[in-house]
Give the backbone structure.
Amino acid sequence: MPFITANPNEYLIVGRRGHITNYGVAARAFLWPGTPYVLLSSTQQEATFEMTQESRDGIPLRFKGIVVYRIVEPELTAQLFNFADGNGHSALQTLLSHMCLGELRALVAQMTMSECIEQRKTTLTDSLSTALQLVVQGQGDRPGWGITLDIVQVAQVFIVDQELRRHLEAEVRNQIKGQSDLSELRMREEFNRAQAASDRRLQQEGLETEKERLAIASSKLQLQNALEREEIEVKTPLRLLQIARQQEIVQAEVLLAQLTNALRALEVERDMLLAQAQQQLRKDILPLEQVPLIAEAAAKVWQGANLSIYGETAPIVATLGPLIDMLTRSLHSSETEFNPAQSHN
């Protein structure tokens, strides 16, 4: 009694009484002799395709691509492809490749060389994937293939003609170089604009800073002027008071000097008046002082006569009055001449 065992990467598909049964991966089943079965690989499989096709502008292009798929419904796949002889995956891959080539030829014939190269990953790949999905997934009553497409990709597109390819490569290189130079020029212009903008911004900031500094300096100057005015307003009354006090002191000193000078003048005048009074007194007393001398002289003249200004001899003395006056004036005159000389000494 045979037992059939599937590997972990294989489906076990068994046919019995007109029905196909999927025992799954890594399954083990007892099969009666003559029972049909098949083992299908569950691993990813790769189908490749390659072709040469002229684009719409008449340039021959070479295309290469791949399709990666997996069997997910082996009972459907086993019905469509013969895996009993071991060529099921080859047949499936060949069919996928032919479908890709047919769809790709129709697309490339309607596209230019540049479009084929530039839209390899977009238009070409997406169109192939859409066309394959419609077939392998089935529509309506038509069942699918029991596979899922993991990758559908146009991997390469290149020019077949070597001379044309070198020419186009040179053109592309020149274009790339031109774009690079243009990009560098734009970058330099942007850098210059950024540098100019930075310089203008720095100048503006410097101007704003200078304005702020000038405003601060102006505020300081105004504040200083205000403080000086307040200080002047505060000090002015005190200074005026000091000046008034100084004027009063000067006036008092002037008055004191005037009084001192007046006092000195009065003292000098007093001394002069005193000297004059003393001189006048001396002048007035001198005749009286000379009378006894005159009398003594007269007595000597009269040889011992006892003369007196009093009593019986008064008339005699009276007769001597003019003589005495004359002597007095003479003495006074002599004394006057003598006193200035004494005062000068």
